[in-house]
Specification:
Radius of gyration: 22 Å
Structural class: alpha+beta
Number of strands: 19
CATH topology of the largest domain: FAD/NAD(P)-binding domain
Number of domains: 3
Oligomer: single chain
CATH architecture of the largest domain: 3-Layer(bba) Sandwich
CATH superfamily of the largest domain: FAD/NAD(P)-binding domain
Mean pLDDT: 91
Strand content: 25-35%
CATH class of the largest domain: Alpha Beta
Low-confidence stretches: none
Bound molecules: flavin-adenine dinucleotide
Helix content: 25-40%
Shape: globular
């Protein structure tokens, strides 16, 4: 329904990454076909580790994707190796491929395009190479100004529900004032691809907690037998603490860490180092406003220890569609009607972010990290506790049970 002669869509989604594309599919399933807008043209790259945990594949199956479709351009992973600052290794899983996939690495160039192509079929319309410039409230609706990459054409659209899925530098989050970037809840990430001519990468992902990268880590995630995604994520305090930029630290650690050198032996970088921000899930602030919801990185839904956000992007898309479609169908997208979404994320994903955020802060100390990862490599309870952060969330009741923490810190020597 048009009120002011401008095109109208009940739902407009800004950003067609995993969050925006998944939200488009989920809204269509509820009978509402959104307008999907992205400033890029697909396929497009996204700086990431390309690591897709098992729980994400379960969500993707719910969206109608089969493992073999995604792995046609990626690599199945069977083992996780975590290296402590003193180079002890904790190993999870075996290298023998079995029928069940543990997790995988799929370059975002392909992964996001697969999701976007499916979303395109579900959307009422897509606008690519259009950037959300500004938005304002008019007669109880949002009026959005979208500018083409060339700057020559400008589109104005109206909507009852604006979904901010525009990533870690979200314009929707910033202009609405819902979230303000805060260095205490923020990591920076860098990524570069390596190729190997002389040997194949094993189907294992490697996390290196080097003394110079704490509380972050360097990773090596193979995306093919001869290609690996190599990256680092760190907090902003590195300049202050080490007098070096994250890029300088990354280059230094790649040269100096013997474990990293061994895994990368015989391979060489094949592109340039690129960076992107990681807003962490502990960032304070509401993810809803009148006629507005934030999902994925725009909502800062990134695990503070792992830096993983693809799972939360798709999960938050699902619940935004669930509660957002109810509000649209009622004809009332006020903040009050969208409150079930706010309640959902605070109840279900925030507790995990808080506990990962606590661990991330403990990882600032080399002494703690050595002690903790040493325990992880030798003790099953610690190993389960640690792996729960990476892949298999612990039930909430375990986290709030004092006996669980007592066992972790006092009974296990
Ligand atoms: C270095 C690094 C490594 C990471 N490694 C992993 C990992 O291994 N596993 C994992 O699960 N997560 C990882 N993450 C996090 C993961 O990349 C994000 O959580 C994920 O991309 C979130 O998806 P999204 O759809 O919310 O945002 P994005 O994927 O960033 O998509 C946002 C989209 O919005 C578009 N957009 C932005 N602004 C506008 C605008 N104004 N107008 C129109 N369109 C706009 C962009 O073009 C983009 O397509 C990593 C992140 C970084 C930085």
């Amino acid at each position: 329904m048009r009120r002011s002669g401008q095109p109208y869509y009940p739902v407009v989604i800004i950003g067609a990454g995993p969050a925006g594309s998944a939200a488009t599919i989920y809204f269509a399933r509820k009978g509402i076909r959104p307008l999907l807008v992205d400033k890029a043209r697909f396929p497009r790259d996204k700086v990431c580790g390309d690591g897709i945990p098992l729980k994400t594949f379960q969500l993707l199956a719910d969206l109608g994707f089969h493992e073999h479709q995604l792995f046609s351009r990626g690599f199945k992973i069977h083992q996780l190796r975590v290296y402590s600052p003193d180079h002890q290794v904790a190993v999870f899983g075996t290298l023998k491929p079995d029928a069940s996939t543990k997790s995988g690495c799929v370059p975002r160039l392909f992964f996001d395009d697969a999701l976007f192509q499916r979303a395109k079929e579900s959307a009422a319309n897509t606008l690519l190479e259009y950037k959300l410039e500004s938005f304002h409230r008019e007669n109880g609706r949002w009026v959005l100004t979208l500018r083409h990459r060339t700057g020559r054409s400008v589109e104005t659209v109206e909507t009852d529900l604006l979904i901010g899925a525009d990533g870690g530098k979200s314009r929707v989050a910033r202009l609405s004032g819902l979230l303000t970037p805060d260095p205490a809840h923020h990591f920076d990430g860098l990524r570069i691809y390596y190729e190997s001519r002389s040997k194949e990468f094993e189907p294992a992902v490697h996390l290196f907690y080097d003394a110079k990268t704490l509380p972050g880590y360097v990773w090596i995630f193979p995306v093919a037998p001869d290609r690996a995604n190599v990256g680092i994520m760190m907090d902003k305090s590195c300049k202050q603490r080490y007098g070096k930029t994250i890029r300088e630290i990354f280059e230094e650690v790649l040269q100096e860490n013997p474990r990293i050198r061994r895994v990368l032996e015989g391979s060489r970088p094949v592109d340039r180092i690129r960076g992107a921000p990681l807003p962490l899930g502990t960032l304070p602030g509401s993810r809803i406003a009148d006629g507005m919801m934030l999902i994925g990185d725009a909502a800062a839904f990134i695990n503070p220890v792992t830096g993983g956000g693809i799972y939360y992007a798709i999960l938050s898309a699902k619940y935004a569609a669930e509660f957002g479609s109810q509000a649209v169908n009622k004809g009332d997208t006020s903040k009050k009607q969208l409150m079930p979404y706010e309640d959902w994320w605070r109840r279900t994903i925030l507790p995990g972010f808080i506990y990962s955020g606590w661990l991330k802060n403990k990882f600032k100390s080399e002494k703690f990290t050595r002690w903790f990862l040493g325990k992880v490599s030798r003790n099953r309870l610690f190993a389960n506790f640690f792996i729960s952060v990476y892949g298999r969330p612990l039930p909430r009741h375990a986290l709030i049970n004092p006996w669980f923490w007592f066992k972790i810190f006092f009974l296990q020597r």
